[in-house]
TrEMBL record:
UniProt lineage: Bacteria, Bacillati, Actinomycetota, Actinomycetes, Micromonosporales
Stated name of the protein: WXG100 family type VII secretion target
Any matching Pfam family: WXG100
Listed SUPFAM superfamilies: EsxAB dimer-like
Region (Disordered) residue spans: 103-122
Length: 122
C-alpha cells in the first residue's frame, strides 16, 4: 500500500503554490483574451454575436478558475492551522500522560526552523 507523508510545511507550500498558479493563470488568460479579442474585431453579424458570447463565457470561466485556485489555497491555509494545532494538542496529551517522555518534540512540525506561519488574514 502506498504511504503518503505530509508535513505542515508541505501544506503551507502547497497553499503558496496555489496562489502563484492562480496569479500566473490569470495573467496568461488575460494575455490570451487580449490577443483573441483583436482577432474578433473583424467579424460581423452572427459570427460577431457568437464571438461576443464566447468571450463572455471565457471571462466567466477564467474568473471561476482563478477563484477556485484561490479558494484551494485558502483551504490549505486552514488545513495548515488545523494540522499544527492538532499535532500540538497530541503532543500536549503525550506529555500529560508521561511528562518524562524522551525526545518528545515541542514543535508539531518537526522542523521549527522551516515552518512558515499562515498569513495574518486567516
Amino acid at each position: 500500500m502506498t504511504q503518503y507523508n505530509v508535513t505542515p510545511q508541505y501544506v503551507a507550500n502547497a497553499a503558496t503554490d496555489c496562489d502563484t498558479t492562480a496569479q500566473d493563470v490569470q495573467t496568461q488568460l488575460g494575455l490570451l483574451r487580449t490577443y483573441v479579442e483583436g482577432l474578433g474585431a473583424s467579424w460581423l453579424g452572427v459570427s460577431a454575436t457568437q464571438f461576443a458570447e464566447m468571450m463572455t463565457n471565457f471571462q466567466v470561466y477564467s474568473v471561476a478558475l482563478h477563484d477556485a485556485l484561490v479558494d484551494i489555497g485558502q483551504g490549505l491555509r486552514g488545513n495548515y492551522v488545523n494540522y499544527v494545532n492538532s499535532e500540538a494538542d497530541n503532543l500536549r496529551g503525550l506529555v500529560g500522560i508521561d511528562g518524562n517522555l524522551v525526545d518528545t518534540p515541542t514543535d508539531p512540525s518537526g522542523q521549527p526552523a522551516t515552518v512558515t506561519p499562515p498569513p495574518a488574514n486567516l
